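Fill-in record for Putative glutamate--cysteine ligase 2.
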Amino acid sequence: MTAAAESLRSVPFDAVCPLMGVEEEYFVVDPGTGAVAPGAPRVIERASAELGERVSAEITQFQVEAKTPPCAGPAELERELRRMRAAVSAAARAEGLAVIASGTPVLGDVVPPPITEHPRYDLGIENYRALHDEQAICAGHVHVHLPDRERAVLVCNHLRPWLPALLALMANSPFWAGRDTGYAGWRILSWGKWPVAGPPPYLESLDHFERLLAALTTSGALVDPATAFWDARPSLRLPTVEVRVADVPASAGESVLLALVVRALVTMSLRRVEEGDPGPRVPDELLRVAYWRAARDGLAGHGVDPRTGRPRPAAAVVDGLLEHIEPALADSGDLAAVTVGWEWLRGAGDGAARQRAARVRRGSLEGVVDDLVERFPA
């Protein structure tokens, strides 16, 4: 946890524009072959000269993680994201490598991946065994400031129905090590094999959350409470909620769009909590199906409406999400930015559609990687 994140303890909560931060995971690739390369330690060491603790290792040596400080508005967040991506990209070039933003590796020999040396990862390998074989995956996480952890827990109940819409919005993982999976968001399906992953359970209170984590840890399903990898989760220490369902967005601009949508969704959820609304009890089975549809089709096909359980065009499900959060977007001044971003994404297609289009345009998966390298700093 960075010093900037820790500073949230002393920052007054802003109910209209709560602070937000983004974590992104990237793949290091060989620019000649397009294959993922185990060069993350070198890239991190070089990038840390500019980014300090904001750049760090991930579970495999194919991956770099970078994070913004807490930001108040979209202009500040985009500036930090572009600076972060530029620093990581420059560090990779200096090492004869490149970086891409894709939820899964387009090319490379990735099973099993080279694991980063760290005592915590050693414990994970001992506990989870071959589940680590497919952990070369990259996500985008959004953190949002809240008044306290008690309300962060209850906010998660309101986030649950909308997680598949966020997954579809940023679907960016169609290929896996040389193969077209047929899915727009393959990463989430690979991740879903873990014992504590996917949508969070319905949580009655902070005490319920902490007792559940303790039981999961005692059972051996968790190495420690921090390894509860639900797609929306309260921080263990800070008054924040983390939404981690999305593939890493292909561009900095898309990361800003995701963060603004998540912040507004958290804001609307907090309003419902403070009105005494415990949140809709969407059945786990329905959420599982909604995840699968979102992962399969992204924005191009049909999703599941979280309010009815019926299939709807994925774009219409996202429209429903934006209608739901419009009051918060209007209050924060972010409505115009989100409207423009969504219209662009609706026309251009999700990241998966653009990866597939690059394959057709450039004639190979190596061309897809080249396209991702070129788009990365944007």
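KEY FINDING: The radius of gyration is 19 Å.
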